[in-house]
Amino acid sequence: MDEQEVAEGYAHIARRLYHIPDGEKVPDLLAFHAPTLLASVWKAILAGPVEINGRKIDFRIIFKSSGASKPDDKTGWTGITFEVAAAGLFGTVPEVERADMWAVLMYLYKCKFEYLNEKRNTPTK
Known about the structure:
The chain is mostly helical. It contains five helices and two strands, in the order ααββααα.
């Protein structure tokens, strides 16, 4: 990856975080700041519970194995975005992409939490 590609990637992150329209110049400070902010938030999410509305939420359960092994479709976050959009809560794929990150993470957390508790409370045959 060359310097120009890195700069474009940083600008893309800033555009998404700060809702800067395509075609408008991304201020250099935001292009530098946005990836640093995103990396710091991601590190906090993966490090342990994050306080949301006075409650500690451990988003790490989203990334933990559910036990049952099934083939990986290799779609990653794009596939997750499709699933969230299919649920309809946040709208279409473009609307999910524009949705508040914390709201989407909370939704994913809630889905995983309910799945794990349902699995724990369902007797096996």
